[in-house]
Amino acid sequence: MEEVEKFLEMVKESDNIVFFGGAGVSTESGIPDFRSVDGLYNQQYDYPPETILSHTFFRRNPKEFYRFYRNKMLCPDAQPNITHKKLAELEAAGKCKAIVTQNIDGLHQKAGSKNVLELHGSVLRNYCENCGKFFPMETILHSEGIPCCDECGGTIKPDVVLYEEGLNQKTLEDAVRYISNADILIVGGTSLAVYPAAGLIDYYRGNKLVLINKSTTPMDAKADLLIQQGLGSVFSQIEV
Q1: Residue extent(s) of CATH 3.40.50.1220 domains in the chain
Q2: Taking the model in full, what pTM does it have?
Q3: Please, which of 17, 125, 135, 165 could form a disulfide with 139 given CB 3.0 to 4.6 Å?
Q4: Per-residue pLDDT of the chain (240 residues; tens, 9 = 90+)
């Protein structure tokens, strides 16, 4: 495919790549995109995911929040796929300067990437809201009802940005800096529908905006190179 050949050539020639990714990066690792309709979800819950994963719902109905969170948001057995691995290789080779991700699964780091900017936090980090004690994902996974701190009895909250909550300011500023200075900005596996994250692409000043996504996005017309394929099939062809 001509577009993929062009993309591979661009990657080969650049040493200042920034990758901006969404849920589509991890679907090939078996992590479901909770926006997609799935019958199991519809049978089990009385509210849409966006409602359950909101700050208001977490406060008002933490027990139901955690029921959904354990069932749908935690995938302890998920492993990095070819896209995660190739990005880690590109970073190790000095070509990829940063990964800006909307994902909360920690798979980029698991694959070996060091400079990962997590816009929406991570399921691997959890804190007591009262005393600040840290808890790993396993604590949430193996708890029942509302997980409580073993030190002070406070509620444990995932270090994940819920709907209605603001993004970490430093993470945002770092993302803007990397994106605005990038030679190539590769955008992959995201519908570009969630703001403010999707708006970060507007900071890119170069002329090598590569958009790789199976479905159409609001930014397709702005892309310098548009590849409507799965990420894995494209990234598997990168030779580092």
Answers
A1: 2-31+76-120+166-235
A2: 0.93
A3: 135
A4: 799 999 999 999 999 999 999 999 999 998 877 655 553 445 577 888 889 999 999 999 999 999 999 988 999 999 999 999 999 999 999 999 999 999 999 999 999 999 999 999 999 999 999 999 999 999 999 999 999 999 999 999 999 999 999 999 999 999 999 999 999 999 999 988 878 888 999 999 999 999 999 888 989 999 999 999 999 999 999 998
Using the Cα atoms of residue 83, residue 120, residue 24 and residue 43 in order, give the sign of their dihedral: positive
Spot the catalytic one: 55, 84, 108, 120. 120
Domain 46-72+123-160, what architecture?
2-Layer Sandwich (3.30)
Count CB neighbours of 200 within 10 A.
24
108 is catalytic: no
Give the Cα separation of 38 and 143 in Å (integer). Answer: 25
Feature table: binding site for Zn(2+): 128, 131, 149, 152
CA-to-CA distance for 96 and 84, rounded, in angstroms?
12
Whether the Cβ atoms of residue 101 and residue 21 lie closer than 8 Å to each other: yes
Annotated binding site for NAD(+): 23, 27, 34-35, 102, 104-105, 120, 190-191, 213
